[in-house]
Design goal:
CATH superfamily: 7,8-Dihydro-6-hydroxymethylpterin-pyrophosphokinase HPPK
CATH class: Alpha Beta
Structural class: alpha+beta
Number of helices: 4
Strand content: 15-25%
CATH architecture: 2-Layer Sandwich
Oligomer: single chain
CATH topology: Alpha-Beta Plaits
Distance between the termini: 35 Å
Order of helices and strands: EHEEEHEEEHHE
Length: 167
């Protein structure tokens, strides 16, 4: 089994529907979804004024090698209306490979583990929900340890959608 963790998120359009569509396409194109965190809401990272994000971590089992997985993920983002206009800008969907087993990849267009996991509470909180004892292969620390020692002050809230809300 290839233990792959993905972070999905977005802050434009119907956020919950966009994440649902991403999960559906990931399951169809990338591999079986074994586990998923709750949805979490947080303010956007960076200095660009924009709506709050919803994020979720998925654990998948994929037949794809790490370098094969990236173009599939980019195609899913494209199919769901992702435009790459500015770094840290608003987006309908964003899919990041957090971990792929315990491998380390450091290439121009692919870095695994994702290089800023330990700095971002919005990644660590949902990851901690489903895999608190997973050991970051570079840091050598568990996800729960990284979360407890994360200096990111951005609040992360479990998201409970309201029925009949536009989102």
């Amino acid at each position: 089994m290839k233990q792959v963790y993905l972070l999905i998120g977005g802050n434009l359009g119907n956020r919950t529907e966009n994440l649902a569509q991403a999960r559906k396409l990931i399951g169809a194109r990338c591999g079986k979804i074994l586990n998923s965190s709750s949805l979490y809401e947080t303010a956007a990272w960076g200095d660009i004024p924009q709506p709050d994000f919803l994020n979720q971590v998925l654990e998948i089992d994929t037949p794809l090698a790490s370098q094969e997985l990236l173009p599939v993920i980019l195609a899913i983002e494209n199919d769901l209306g992702r435009f790459r206009n500015e770094r840290y800008g608003p987006r309908t969907i964003d899919i990041d490979i957090l971990f792929y087993n315990d491998i380390i990849v450091d290439e121009k267009h692919l870095q695994i583990p994702h290089p800023r996991i330990a700095e971002r509470r919005f990644v660590l909180t949902p990851m901690n929900e489903i895999a608190p004892d997973f050991i970051h292969p570079v840091a050598g620390k568990t996800i729960s340890w990284l979360l407890a020692n994360c200096k990111d002050e951005l609040a992360v809230y479990k998201y409970f959608p309201i029925v009949n809300n536009k989102d």
